[in-house]
Design goal:
The structure holds 2 protein chains of 2 kinds. By secondary structure, chain A is mainly alpha-helical. Chain A contains 10 helices and 2 strands; from the N terminus they run ααααααββαααα. In chain A, β1 and β2 form a beta hairpin. Chain B has one domain. The mean pLDDT of chain B is 85. The chains are: A mainly alpha, B mainly alpha.
Chain lengths: 270, 306
Amino acid sequence: MKRKLTALAVLLGLGLAKLPLEEATTQHLRDRQLLSRPIDLSLRENLGQMGFAASLGGLRSLVASVTYLQAYSAFENVDWGKVDSLFQLTTRLQPGYAKYWEEAAWHMAYNAASNYLYHSNKPRAIRHQLTREHVQRGIDILDEGLRYSPKSGILWAKLGEIYARRGLNPLTEQFEELDSQKAGDCYLAAAENGALQVYERLGAYELVKTHDVRSHRRAYEVLMKNYQAGKKTPALIHNVKLLEERLSIPTAQRIPEADSMPGPQVPARR
Amino acid sequence: MSTPTSTAPQSVRFQPFSIRRVWTLASATVTQLVRMKILAFLVLFCLIVVAAGFAFPVMNPEQQLKLLKDVSFGALQVFAIVIAVTATALLLPRDLEDRTLYTILAKPVPRFEYLLGKLLGVLLLIGGGLLVMDLVLSVVLWLRQNMVLDAAIAGLAHDHMDTPENIAAQQAAVAREGLTWGMHTGVIAIFLKAAVVAALALLISCFASSTLFTIVITFCFTIAGHGQQLFRDYFFHGNFSAFGEKLAGTVLAIICPDLGLFDIVENVLNGIYPKLADMGYLGGMGLLYVTGYMIAAHLLFVEKEL
């Protein structure tokens, strides 16, 4: 009996001694981003008891994969509400995985928005409203994803793409630039955070379209850096020439005329 | 005249602790468990990995690889926990039933060596199983990674987009989701969690009345252990309101191990790899739990009437 009581005392002693150690280890691993925060209890209803228990039991990544597959299936069935809610679950389960945020935003801003615009029998005004709402939903998803992964190049690049390509023109019912300033900033942030270097040039091209002189100076710096690195593409040279005129760059500092060749006309906007 | 030589057997001094005895017990335990066909799970795992690797060809390359890893690591975790609970729970009752326990303890084998040998045997089995499954996963993932990359580059070439920059980006994306050395640290974390659960199951089996009781109670502790962070939050920050909740939260925080600590796998699969110091933290916590539970198990087992 004495040893049983000793065993109980050992367990209680261990229990009390381990608590601060567990707390310190948890904090250390969270600081190192190795351990996620505990799952939000409000997800229980959406996941179901089994899914919730599994995600609590260390199978969060697997449960996220299952909800991702369900979202994919909903996408195949063109059920946008379900796609959105299932991707919400998926991204809540694995908020640090940028690809889930990117794909969720792509479904909303591209697939759902285009589907409502071109393949819906609803009245024109409703179609336009739904299209704009879904483009905005895509932006909101990426903004939220960037709160978890602010250094994700792919999320900045996708956000830039949406601002550069997903503005609805109600007259032509075509997509065009939504906000060149934001698109440029996002593309440049993408390039700074590990996305393809082409996004640096794309960001500068977007900034050229604005009316802001500071943005023009920034675009000029970026494009000249690329020019000096040997990237003398027609679009780059055309935009440099445009900026040389707008910023009144001294003749001695301008790029040689020999490099210049006809490029697309880029009107200034906003 | 020849000198008389002693023909009497030399007395062997009894050693209070012998690593050889523990090893003998551990290897016998592994044999015993292998005969129970517990490793049939390995075949099932291989089927799951191959199915997950080739079941979703329509998804993008990175998602295909991520899904393969998620499913495989999920299966690894289930294998490790299920074996840790069931195999350990079966050991003592089976030895009693076979009367092997009496044969062993009739020899000069201290009871703590017996327990240590049993635990080591289970850990060897789990470790070996995880190693084989990790190897199978690595081979399938490597093959799938190459297939997926070839297909992606062929797709870029078809669209005349196969610039060096695009190819390099595709290679980097696939490599990020593919086979890496850091991925194996996730397997080590799974092993550490299984070791804690096995030690807990051994402790419970030292006072349990039946195998079923051990299995059910250990599973309950395992589930509660994954939510222990929530109970601990109460202990340090006091989030519960009712007295019953407070009491239950405190008790569970004290008696349950924090198994959620070892759940670094999901972030490892996302490319965040632990450093040696991080693994030291995890290993240290694992050792603390196992040592504590083994001391308590020994104290209970010494008094157990066999």
